[in-house]
Structure formats: C-alpha cells, structure tokens
Request: fold
Amino acid sequence: MANTADISRGLIIKLDGSLYSVVEFGENKTARAAAKVWAKLKGVENARSIEKTWNSGDTIYPVRVEKKNYQFLYKDDSGYSFMDTETFEQITVQENLVDAPQFLKDGQEVSVSINTESELPMSVELPDKIVLLVTYSEPGVKGDTATRTLKQATVETGATVNVPLFVNEGELIRVNTKTGDYVERVKE
Reply:
C-alpha cells in the first residue's frame, strides 16, 4: 500500500469511489500538531476539482496508469476515434476526455492514459506544442507594431488563435495546446 509520502504531481488516486489526478500538493507542519499533507485534485471522469487533507502517513490508493501512443483518426457522433500505433487497435473516447480537442488534426499523435484495472481510457493528451497551418487571417496593417497587437487567425482544425500582425494566411505556426496561445512562426 502507498501512503501520503508517495504523493506526486500527476499521480492518479482513488478517493470515495472516484478517480482524481494530483494537480498540486504540499505539507503543513506545526509545532503542536502532527504534519498534514494536502493536495489539489482534479476529477478524471468529471471536471470536478477538490482539495483533500490527510494526516502524514495515511494510506492512499493510487491507480496504475499506462500511457500509450495513439493516432487520431476521425470524429463522429460516437466520439473521437484513435488507433494504437503498435497494435492498430482502435478506441473511441468522448470529447470531455480530450484535453484540447479544438487542436486535433487527422493523423495527430497523442498520448492516451489507460486505467490498467479496467482497461478503459482515462484521458487523451496532445503534445505540448503542435504545428498548424493558418487557413484564414486578416492582413496586418503596417505601422500597428508599436505595441504587441494581436489579431485572430483560423487554423486548419477550425480553432481560432490570437497571433501577431505579421502572421499571414498559408503560414505554419506553433501553438501551445495547454493554453491555446501562439508560440512562434515555423519555417518550412
């Protein structure tokens, strides 16, 4: 069994019958009372966020999670379909399990976390930064560069990203999938 000393960021634990991912954790020590361990937890099946406090040394119940590489195939009424890049086995997951569905493009490599107890997918993570083609963007006006002015651009997945004025239609840009922010222009 694991105890509170084993808590780490990203660990998935079972708490009151639900699965939660550890977002942040820490320890509170006082001179009079025993040490306490606290954690901010995010629900895996739902988007619920909670805070939990344990006495130092209490038992926790981690869930073994396996990460596998999958390739995005298509989206339909049943959800998002992915294929295992090693076994070619296909799975379908709901949109709420995908961390940034607006940036998914055909053939995109993703990392799928699978609960080894139930063999069910728990989450789908895109790479931190991906390269996308700008399909629509208003032309920038010369002289508007005194401040860091941004304009909206539509990328090949249909998502809109705020980009600097010098980015034009038909160019490749790198986007941070966690924040949805423009990172840089990519030379071909």
Remarks:
- The chain has three domains: 2-60, 65-125, 129-186.
- The chain has a mean pLDDT of 88.
- The chain is about 0% helix and 55% strand.
